[in-house]
Amino acid sequence: MIVFDLKCAKDHVFEAWFRDNATFEKQRRAKDISCPVCGENKIKKAPMAPNIAVGATEKNGTAGKATKDTAMAEKMMSTCRALRDAVEKNSDYVGPRFAEEARRIHYGEADKRSIYGEASDRDARELHEEGVSITAIPWISRTDS
Ligand SMILES: [Zn+2]
Q1: pLDDT, tens digit, for every residue of 91-133?
Q2: Is 53 left (phi over 0), alpha (psi -120 to 50) or beta?
Q3: Which residue of 52, 88, 112, 116 sits 20 to 30 Å from the alpha carbon of 40, by its own alpha carbon?
Q4: Handedness of CA 36, 39, 44, 46 (dihedral sign)
Q5: What would the 3-class secondary structure string for 94-133 be?
Q6: Which residues partner with 6 through β-bridges?
Q7: How far does residue 50's CA lie from ligand 1's centre (Å)?
Q8: Ligand 1 centroid to residue 38 C-alpha, Å
Q9: Burial of residue 68 (number of CB atoms within 10 Å: 0-12, 13-18, 19+)
Q10: Average pLDDT in the chain
Q11: How far apart are the CA of 42 and the centre of ligand 1, in A?
Q12: Phi-psi bin for 8: left (phi > 0), alpha (psi -120 to 50), beta?
C-alpha cells in the first residue's frame, strides 16, 4: 500500500491510499477519485513525496526525488541484467527461431529445455493461444552495461 497526498482542481489537499502507483494512475484516469471536500474528480498528486519506504540514500535528507528515481532505475537495470545473465546461463539461445523451437518443445519434437530468443508480438500471442508457456522479459543489450 502507498499513501499519496492528492490535490483537487480547487486546491483541496487530501490523503488517499492505493495499492500502488499504477492503481492510482488508473483510478485517476478513470476519474474514480474524488475530492472529499468538493467532490471534484480532477485530481493530481500534491507536490509532496509519497510516504513509501525509502532506501539508504534518502536517509541523509539531501537526496531528492530525482535521486530516488535514478536509484530505482538503476535497481531495475541491475535486476534486468541479473535476469538476462540467468537466462543466458540456463537457456539455449535460438534467436529468431524461438517460436518454431518453442512449438517443437511443446509438442515433444525437441528436447524439453529452456530456450530464449526473439519473438514478435504476433508469435507470442499465437504461442500463448496454443498453450505454449512463454515469458516475455525486459531485455537489455550488452551495450547498456
Ligand atoms: Zn476539492
Answers
A1: 888 988 989 999 999 999 998 888 888 888 888 889 889 888 8
A2: beta
A3: 52
A4: negative
A5: EECCHHHHHHHHHCCCCCCCCEEECCCHHHHHHHHHCCCC
A6: 14, 45
A7: 20
A8: 4
A9: middle
A10: 82
A11: 9
A12: beta
Ligand 1 mean position, distance from CA 23 (Å)? 21
Chain length of the chain: 145
pLDDT at 16 over 50: yes
- At which residue does the C-alpha cell 505454449 appear? 132
- Element containing residue 2 per DSSP (H, E): strand 2-8
Domain map of the chain by residue range?
Answer: 2-45, 65-144
